[in-house]
Amino acid sequence: MKYVDFKTVQAMWALTLVIVTVLLFPGTAIGKASTAATCSSFPNQAAAQDALPQNPKLDGDGDGIACESLPCPCSTADPAPAPVVSVVFGGKKVQSAKKGSVVFTVKCPDEDCTARASGNVNVPKVGKRASLARKFKLKRVKKSLAVGQTVKLKLKFSKKTRAAVRRALKTRKKVKVKVKITVTNASGAAKSKRYTVKLKR
User: Fold this and answer.
1) What domains can you pick out in the chain, each with its CATH number?
2) pLDDT at 34
3) Are strands 190-200 and 150-156 parallel, antiparallel or unpaired?
4) What is the pLDDT of residues 179-195, one digit of tens each?
């Protein structure tokens, strides 16, 4: 008759008890031991990334990527969505040169924002003795907007620009104004819109 060592039986019962506890009570300290993993617990970065939801500490720098020092195969987190700013732009594509400016509107319906506008006037060559076509820069405009507020952005022509525009329009030349409007919010998100405006007499 064979005798089983008492210590062997005791070890087998202890192992059985641990297995049953993990299976039946995963929320216990023993069950949680499997989730308290470190980077050294995984063979590669992809495996660590899969375990990241249960082991947040695997992402040491908070960029959503687990155990970046581990070898590949690798798996990265989806990039965070870029911040956006909601803007309503307004402006006519044909405007009168008599006003000596071009006008646009901006509205931020969801938050406070800041609008900046810049541009230039392209005046073609007039007459055989005239110089080549010229580009006149417009003075930059900056406006702060409260949430839901509609603001006008008026880019004025200088006296020299107005004179050149009048001469070109009298000879039926096409004069165009190119404008860029950029709106930013408090978080630094930006949205831009470009306009090409045709000037009329």
Assistant:
1) 88-200 (2.60.40.2550)
2) 43
3) unpaired
4) 999 999 988 889 999 99
In sign, the C-alpha dihedral spanning 59, 60, 62, 65 is negative
Question: 66: exposed, middle or buried (C-beta count within 10 Å: 0-12, 13-18, 19+)?
Answer: buried
Q: What is the rounded CA–CA span in Å between residue 107 and residue 89?
A: 7
Q: How far apart are CA 163 and CA 169, in angstroms?
A: 10
Residues 6+ apart with CB under 8 A from 61: 68
Burial class (CB in 10 A: 0-12, 13-18, 19+), 127: exposed
What pairs with residue 191 in β-bridges? 183
CB 76 within 8 A of CB 49: yes
Q: pTM for the full model?
A: 0.59
Query: How confident is the model over 115-165, as pLDDT tens digits?
Result: 999 999 999 987 765 556 789 999 999 999 999 999 999 999 999 999 999
How many angstroms from the chain centroid is the CA of residue 106? 20
Selection from 143, 149, 140, 139 nearest residue 184 by Cα: 143
